[in-house]
Structures are given as structure tokens and as C-alpha cells.
Amino acid sequence: MNIPFLNFIVIILLLFFFTRFSCGADIITSSTNLSDGRTLVSSDGSFELGFFSPGSSAKSRYLGIWYKNIPVPTVVWVANRCDPINDTSGVLMINSTGNLVLLNQSSGSVVWASNSKKEAQNPVVQLLDSGNLLLQDRTPGKSDIILWQSFDHPTDTLLPGMKLGWDLRTGLNRQISAWKSPDDPCPGDLIYGVEPYNNPDAVIWKGSRRYYRTGPWNGIGMSGAPQLKPNPWFTFNLVSNEEEVYFIFYLKNKSAITRLIVNQTTSRGERYLWKEDTQTWIEYSHFPWDDCDTYGTCGAYGTCVNTALPPCQCLKGFKLKSQEEGSMDWFQGCVRNKPLDCHKGDGFIKFGGLKLPDTAHSWVNKSMNLNACRAKCLENCSCMAYTTLDIKETSGCAIWFYDLIDLKQVQSAGQDLYIRMAASDSDHTETKGKTNLMAGLIIAAAILVVTRVLVITYYIRRSHRNIQGRENGCSDERQIEDMEFPLFELDLISNATNNFSSNNKLGEGGFGPVYKGTLPDGKEIAVKRLSRSSGQGLVEFKNEVALIAKLQHRNFVKLLGCCIQGEEKMLIYEYMPNKSLDYFIFDHTRRSLLDWPKCFHIICGIAKGLVYLHEDSRLRIIHRDLKASNILLDSEMNPKISDFGMARAFGEQSEGNTKRVVGTYGYMAPEYAIDGNFSIKSDVFSFGILLLEIISGKKNKGFYHLNDNLNLIGHAWRLWKEGNASELIDSFVQESCTLSEVLRCIHIGLLCVQQYPEDRPSMSSVVLMLGGGTALAIPKEPGFLFGKKSLKTIPLSSKPESSSPNQLSYSVLEPR
Which residue in 611, 595, 582 sits closest to 690, CA to CA? Predict the structure, then answer.
């Protein structure tokens, strides 16, 4: 056989190979396919289609689409979400019916299919520059027909140009659902979609229940989502007509890269922007934003005010329904002080700055003005409220029937709502513009005089009532009362705790004992009683009241009020039946009650609480005493951060310095313990310690590895460097965990306890890491690596009153 003939054979084989097994840059035809190991790339190089393994699940192969030009692996769509292929035999092809199918060649089974019912003569698959995978019929001489597209079947990600909502003609519902975990793209129970009412709402569901609403579209934005605001990167809109109801966003700046996801770990919708200079995703916004965003928190006619305490309040003219039954159940909502009488001239009261109520029972008209809208509502006795549909154009009408649910005070982006009231309640509001000026002045003067008399009478009575404790407690009590904070009588608290019986004692904190109590209505409380012998307690007491009064978050223990009378100063908290985290993780028997899913839930809850303190609250707050005993657990094992006595609040600053170092040894960051410098990164260090303690079941303080003189941090660091990090995991955790998830948490913990604050991640980055939304950096050496033998290297003072910034008071080293 001569050489030219051999060359000819090689050419023929190559032509056959490329004809059968390869495809164009961005298309697949009926004569080509896509096998594992090969990819399809959009024409501009933005997106790539191929097979991948999420997280550390190397054996599970999925067909997905991801960003091609981003170094951080970011998957935006998955075909076989719950049906992985366990080897590399997967192949994507167009079958004889013109459908796109994913085959497992090892088993010969179809793993996934597009299931289009349209016939096609020349089907072609193309990956568009938008990230949309398109199956079309491209028959010559005819217009292209879309048979199927991935944008109609999204997974957990909403991309620019993708519709979230309904095609009313076909019944197609486009919604996104979270991955179960970073290693499992199968849908979790968190779903984001649009409810196609007359006045559509974008909603997050947890399972079958509503979890969050944005509020309806008002022509500018969603009435309850002020974070969804105009920006230089993208614009958004809601389309509602007879054929479709959907939410959509488009890029303003074509170079911007942004995506919206739902995250099972954080229970949030999250929007990210790609930051080119740092090569990372940054969170632009998220929802729910605060506790008041939780659906129906305050019941019917109750409005949630995030800055108030308690946050739930009845609207003017309403009272709490459950008060009639001797309880304080806000989920039952509020009822009118005076019942409506439709035939005796009901009126309306205007309430401003509201997230509009649930639109399930609403009606809209795009051509009516506000006066016509009012008349329309008045003529129907079931109509409870009305407002302008489009505040941008000041046109249109929206009215609500039956009870008004899920109201929230939204200062920056709320809307006016006119609520139906009995004639006697609405007369003042609707006729105040018609009263003459003199009558108004007389009424105002009379109110002023009466108010001053009442205030003077109140202070006189209070001073007589508290005369015995005036010298010691009067000024402090006024400071507390000035916060408009609930005050409990001493007799009430004494009776609730059986006169502070030792049988009711829950424990002893740094500033005094904590007692369990039961109020007359049956509500259980925890009473933190400030020790009279505590030299530091008064400052921290007022600090804790001042801070917690401003904080509302599902992962903070709820402060119900306080008691300050004479020398007695007490904080009244909601009672946590499962005590604190250290009660479980450091006890061999009780630790078995905390499997890994519960541990991970607790870790994420603590992280989200710290994000609120550091970034989302009105004040930037540093806790300074985060530890296992300060993490309380409710009846469902939800974590609640407690004990804000050491916390410090800042404005735009994020760090400070103190000569009096306070806190708990074993959790304090090096720069704080040694130099008195503290910042939000000090809390990050404490969180890292807590994370490693939860995983290992060992206390950092008291852990001592004899062979190498290492404490828990040093031990974890050594194991991680040697590739043996799994040896740190407690046996009870190992029995129920996904190993890759726990190893990722150890990695995150080591990032948090790095020696220098600037190397530690922010807590918002930690939440993102826990959700698997970003790659992890390589940690540097931690601070405080060594055990007991090395304590002599830290200068200590035997005098508690020592104030040198370079010394650590010995009294502070004792556990609180």
C-alpha cells in the first residue's frame, strides 16, 4: 500500500469523524451530537453548553449552561436536574421526532427530553448569546419556528431577557427554583414566580406557602421592594395583558453581567453583578429584606414597621383581634374599632408609605382616575381599599375586596392606600380641608393644653410612685422610657419568676442571673437580672436596650421589654426552650440531637444575623461577644443571637479601639485581645471559631493537642494543610453530612480566623460561600494557633482595672 493511498484513507476518516461527531461553534443538527467532554459555545463567547459535575460530586454528570468568560464556575441552567448520569456516557442529540434528548449510553435510557409536540423537518439547536438554548425548525423557504427554548424552562437563575411568569394562551408558567444544595441542582422548596392576578404579584414560595411578596407593580417599581430601584446596569418591567403576565429585566449597559437567583441556603432571592476588577460576583440586592417582608407577619389590617418595637401595629381605627381572647397573636390580625355600615355613608382614610396588600382579591382598571376609583369602591360593600394603579402616569384604578393582608411600612418607596372606614372614623380625615381656620386653631390649642396637663399629671404620678428609688434609678429609667420601649412592673416580673426562685434560674451570665418566668397570659419569658454588685452592668444594660430596640431580625433573640425600678434593672426576652448552642454541641449525649442539616441551618442563621448587624441595619453594629452560649435555640432549633451588652454601634465606620477589652477568651480576635482594636472582622473571627466548634464538637478554649501544643484553631489548620481536614469532623456530624459541604465549612472557618483582619472575608461573603455561590480562596495562617503553653506570650495583667491598650486584663479571660 503506497503513501498517497494511506493519506487518502486518513482524510476520508477525518471527514467522517468531524461530520459525525462535531458540530458548528454554536449549533447541533440532526446529524451531529454533543458528547461528554465537548461543549457548545455561543457566537460571542458569553455562554457554554456542556457536561459538568457540581461541587465535589465528581461522578454525577449534568448537562448545563454556564458563563464562558467568567473564571468563577457559574451554572445558569441544568437539563437533568434530578437525574444525573453516573459516568461520562452522556450525549445530547436530536432524535427522529425532532426533539432534543439527553441519552445515557451506558444504560440506553433517555435521561431528559425537550418534549416538544410540534413537528419539524429540519430541527437545529443553537446556543444564543443571551444564554438561551433554542430548538428551531429551519426549513428552507420558510420562517424559522421555535419548537422549544430553555428560557421557557428556567432552573434557579433569571437572566436578562428571560420572562418570569405566565403565557396565558398555553398555560406555561415560567418560574425559578433553588438548588437543593451546592452539590445538588435538584429543585429545593424555594420557588420564585408571578401570580397572574388582575394586579400581578411576584412571589417567593416555601413549598406550598407564600413566603414573600414584592407587592404589585405601580408603574415605577414593585410597591414593597424599594431595593428594586433605577440603576446604571439594568432596567425592569412587568407586562400584563390578555396573553401574558411576566416580569422581565434588560441590560442598559451591554458590558454588564448580572443574574438573579433563588438560594435555598439563605432562603432569599439574590441579584449579583460581576465585578471585573476583582473577578468576583458581588451581591447587589436581595429579598426578603427584613423580618417585615415575611408574608402576613402582622395579619389582616396589621402593618409591619421594621424600626418599631414591636414591629406589628394595627392601622389607625383598628385594634388587635386576639386581645379579645387574652393573647397577642398577630397572625390573627386586627379588626375595626367600629364596624362598617355600607348603607350609612362609609368613607376612606388615606394611609401613606405602604407596601400594597396581597392582590389575590383585587380588581384593576387602567383608564379610571382616582375619583372614579373611589366611587367604584364605594358602590361595592365588599370593597375595602383603593389606590392609583400607575403612580408614574397618575392613572388607573386598583381596588381590594375582603381583608387586607401583608401590609408593610415602606418609607422610601411605599404607596398611598385609601382604606374603607365607618363614617364616624373617616369624617375627620375627609372633611378636614373644609373646616375653617379658626375652628382648627381652637381645636389645636385645646389639644395642646389637654396634652400638657396629661403629661404633667403623668410625671407627677410617676415621681410619687418611684420616690424611693429616684436617686439611684430615675435618670436611667427616663433614658429607657425615652426610647418608647415597653416597661414591665417589678411586681409582675417577681410573680412571673416565683420571686426569682432558684428553681426558675436558667443560668448565670457575666452581669447576673437569668430566670425563666411565666406571665399571667401564659407567655414564657426569660429575665436577665442585672447583678447589683456588677460594676460594669449599668452601661451594658442601657447599651443592650438601646441597640436591641432598634434591631429586628429573625436570627436575633426578641427583647420584649425591660424593668427598671430603684436598683433593679432587668431585660425581658422571649423564652428559648432549647437553651443555647453550647448546651448541645459540647455534650456527648445531647450532641446526637444535632445532625448536620440542623447544624448547617444554625450556621447559616448565625451568618445571616451578622450580615444584618454589619451591613443591613441602620447602624453598623459589632457584637464583640459572639460565642456558643450566646446563640439561643427556639423550639424549631432556629438560632437566635443574644447578649448585646458588649455590642458597639457605628455610623459609616467599621472599626474602633478600646482600652477596656471585654468579651470571652477563645473567641476574641488577636488584634482585639492584644491591642484593643475591634471591627466587623472581629466578629468574623468569632464566627470562624464558632463554625469550627460546631463541626468538631470541641471548645476552642480548653482544647489542647499534646503532641504539637495546638489549640482547636491550630489543630484544624494543621489537618487542613495536610489534607486531613475530615479528621476534625465530629462522629455525629459524619453520620448525617455531605462530606464536601462540611469540608467547605471548615475551609470557610479557616478563612474567618486568619491572623490579619484585612484577610478575613465579610459576613456577606461568608453567606455567599456557604451557599456555594463563590470560589474559596486559600486561607493564610490563623491567629492564636497555640495552646496553653503559649499563653505566656500574650502580656497579661493581674489587675482587672489595668487600662493599657497593649495588655489584656486577666479578668476578661474568664468565661462569661
Answer: 582
Contact 741, 749 (CB under 8 A): no
Q: What is the predicted pLDDT for the residue at 461?
A: 56
DSSP string of 609-657?
Answer: HHHIIIIISSSEEE-S---GGGEEE-TT--EEE---TT-EEESS--EEE
CB 713 within 8 A of CB 781: no
pLDDT single digits (tens) 250-281: 998 888 999 999 999 999 999 999 998 889 99
C-alpha cell at position 170: 398555553
Alpha-carbon span 506 to 517, nearest angstrom: 10
Element containing residue 429 per DSSP (H, E): helix 423-431
Q: In what order do the strands lie in the sheet with 184-195?
A: 176-181, 184-195, 201-206, 209-213
pLDDT digits (tens, 9 = 90+) for 595-622: 999 999 999 999 999 998 888 776 778 9
| 488's grid cell | 414591665
Instruction: For residues 759-772, give the mean pLDDT.
Output: 90
End-to-end CA distance of the chain: 90
> CA angle, corner 37, sides to 32 and 41, nearest 5?
65
Edge-to-edge strand order for the sheet containing 109-113?
33-35, 90-94, 100-104, 109-113
Helix axis angle, 712-721 to 680-696, nearest 10°: 80
The three three-digit cell numbers of residue 481, written as one number: 422610657
**Contact criterion met (CB below 8 Å) for 401 and 384:** yes
Q: Ramachandran region of residue 754, left (φ > 0), alpha (ψ -120 to 50) or beta?
A: beta
- If you search the block for the grid coordinates 388587635, which residue do you land on? 320
Retrieve residue 188's grid coordinates.
429545593
Q: Which residues pair with 259 in a beta bridge?
A: 272
Write the CA distances from 366 to 119, 373, 415, 603, 701, integer angstroms: 40, 10, 17, 48, 66
Structural contact between residues 28 and 125, judged by C-beta atoms closer than 8 angstroms: yes
Place of cell 468574623: 684
Please identify which of the residues 26, 293, 346, 625 carries the catalytic annotation. 625
Give the 3-state secondary structure of residue 106.
Answer: coil
Q: What domains sit in the chain, N to C, each tagged with a CATH number?
A: 24-153 (2.90.10.10), 293-431 (no CATH), 471-574 (3.30.200.20), 581-813 (1.10.510.10)
Cβ neighbors of 457 (< 8 A, separation 6 or more) are none
CB of 705 closer than 8 Å to CB of 728: no
Strand partners, 238: 247
Residue 674 has pLDDT above 80, yes or no: no
Kindly report, residue by residue over 711-745, the tens digit of the pLDDT. Answer: 899 899 999 999 999 999 998 888 888 888 999 99
**CA atoms within a 13 Å half-sphere pointing along the CA-CB vector of 148:** 21
| C-alpha cell, 465 | 410612685
Nearest to 286 by CA among 205, 227, 216: 227
Instruction: Copy the grid coordinates of residue 448.
Output: 395642646
Containing H/E element for 562?
A: strand 559-565
Strands 90-94 and 383-390: unpaired
Residue 625 designated active-site: yes
Backbone angles phi, psi at 694, to 5 degrees: -60, -40
How far is Cα 20 from Cα 33, in angstroms, rounded to an integer? 8
- Pairing of β 27-29 and β 639-641: unpaired
d(CA 277, CA 464): 66
- The dihedral sign for the CA sequence 92, 96, 100, 104: negative
Q: What is the pTM of this model?
A: 0.57
Rounded to whole angstroms, how far apart are CA atoms 131 and 154? Answer: 11
Whose CA is closest to 93, among 111, 81, 106, 76?
Answer: 111
Question: How many whole angstroms separate alpha carbon 528 and alpha carbon 546?
Answer: 15
